[in-house]
Amino acid sequence: MFPILTDLERRLPIYLNNLGGWIHQDLMERPHGFAEYQWLQVTSGRGFLRVQGREMTIGPGQGMLLLPNEPHAYGPLEAPWGIKWVTFTGNRTAEMLQDLDLHCSEVFYLGNPDVSLKHLQEMYSLLQSPHPTTGLETSAVIYRLLLDIYRYGSRTELRSRKHQMDVLSPVLDYMELHYDRTIALAELAELLKVSPQHVCVLFQQALGVRPIEYLTRIRIRKAKELLLLHPDAEVKAVSTQVGYEHPSYFIKLFKQQEGLTPVMFRRIHLSRL
């Protein structure tokens, strides 16, 4: 299915070009690549993808992201090889994919393949009954699709980012409850029955930060709430409530994250009420 593309759609950061599927995908060889970005998801059988000098097998529960103008080939190994696909582009698509760590042609294992298939079905339904806002709506669905590839996708059969965050869930909940006091790395390790070093590895894999950095972000978020809920409270009192004994250190961290001091933050936000 092909959408009607006006100048409005072509100005969007990301927009749909084509959507479809095959009960059995035949061999496809593109020595010069394809003009748009592609997401192809396997629904049955097994096949291969050849790209960047590598050949990878791909079956149900997996999908492949292909970048524009990159030579590639894919085809069946076990028939019928069912495929559903969407092609897309836009003037900010490259930046979006880069920010989501989806910056090269890859095969992904999907922790929850039904989620991405649901997005494809939603776009199909939108294209069946087109109206002037269909381009905007499908653009939003493509972005949600990419977010879920980021969330549920993994380049190996190991845990996806979503699974990594699920493993950390007891630790994150613990931090939310006890952010107002010192939390030792050993406490977090005990919750997961792993070493303190492995806790740091899990945080880096799932969130891209160290445990202490994540705790700081929780504390600053709580501080922002307290600053506005209690406009007459001194910064020193707020600092203590979120776990910082020394107000000067709290102010330094707050400014690093927010770009302004707690007093300036309160003044700006309360003046808008």
Automatic annotation (TrEMBL):
Q: Which GO terms describe its molecular function?
A: DNA-binding transcription factor activity; sequence-specific DNA binding
- The record places domain HTH araC/xylS-type at 169-268
The record's listing under PROSITE patterns reads:
HTH_ARAC_FAMILY_1, HTH_ARAC_FAMILY_2
Which UniProt keyword terms apply here? DNA-binding, Transcription, Transcription regulation
What SUPFAM superfamilies does its record include?
Answer: Homeodomain-like, Regulatory protein AraC
Q: What InterPro entries does the annotation carry?
A: AraC-bd, Homeodomain-like_sf, HTH-like, HTH_AraC, HTH_AraC-typ_CS
**Tagged with keyword Oxidoreductase:** no
| Keyword tRNA-binding in record | no
Q: What is this protein called?
A: Transcriptional regulator
